[in-house]
Amino acid sequence: MVKITQSTICQGFPTRIGSPSRANNVLNELIIKPLNEDDVGAIQVFECDEKELTDWLKTDALRDQALMISRTFLVKHPKNGALGYFSLLNDSIRLDPELKGKWKRREIEYSSLPALKIGRLATHKNHIKKGIGKAMLANILKETLKNITPRSGCRYITVDSLPNAIGWYKKLDFEELKTKTKRKLSVPMYFDLERIAQVAS
Ligand SMILES: CC(C)(COP(=O)(O)OP(=O)(O)OC[C@H]1O[C@@H](n2cnc3c(N)ncnc32)[C@H](O)[C@@H]1OP(=O)(O)O)[C@@H](O)C(=O)NCCC(=O)NCCS
To answer: In the Cβ-directed half-sphere of 193, how many Cα atoms lie within 13 Å?
Structure first.
């Protein structure tokens, strides 16, 4: 299991991605940047293994950003263009019986808590299994603890995972939320930021 430790988080930060444990030239040259109009060319040639995620980046990401619905970040390589992206938005997690039980043991009885949602996350299909996805997640965790939690309550990172990515998220310490969901194609999952809040501070 890959643990999100301080060293894992640092692999994705600051904006330049470098992974000393993997001798991989591509990884060392990547940067993570906010999506803007200058990236239109780069996103048109992006392709991942899920068509819906490829299409959304090309047609909806900039629009949703302008509408303040989500913010998108690109992983870019100076020669190979966009190798990955993720989008983020605010969320609220409805606690399942297991999470409710955990909070109740601390004598806290909320039914939902604040979260940050990974709306979409994908690696270019020619560059999967090189650590890019892990670096994106590390970036999300570190930036959340640095810029969001000091200003606003945010306890969990949430995602509606596509079936093929459930194992990947579990490997990175996400857990399945056991609430009934109407969406059958995706599985709601969460990561508890308290796990790393102490390490990262
Ligand atoms: C899921 C996805 C984002 C993973 O990205 P990636 O860049 O290949 O991930 P990484 O290289 O950082 O993987 C980290 C580790 O997880 C493993 N891994 C990769 N995909 C996996 C999967 N589907 N299930 C289980 N483990 C997986 C890698 O082998 C690697 O293991 P290691 O650290 O022991 O070497 C990518 O496959 C993808 O874009 N899929 C299509 C879009 C998608 O499904 N997105 C998620 C929907 S929310």
So the answer is: 27
26 ligand 1 Cβ < 6 A: no
Q: What pTM was computed for the model?
A: 0.89
Q: Which atom of ligand 1 is nearest to the CA of 135?
A: 12
Q: If you count them, how many residues does the chain have?
A: 201
CA 172 to centroid of ligand 1, rounded, Å: 10
Per-residue pLDDT of 162-184, as tens digits, reads: 999 999 999 999 999 998 766 57
Residue-range domains of the chain with CATH: 6-200 (3.40.630.30)
Q: Would you say the CB of residue 128 lies under 6 angstroms from ligand 1?
A: yes
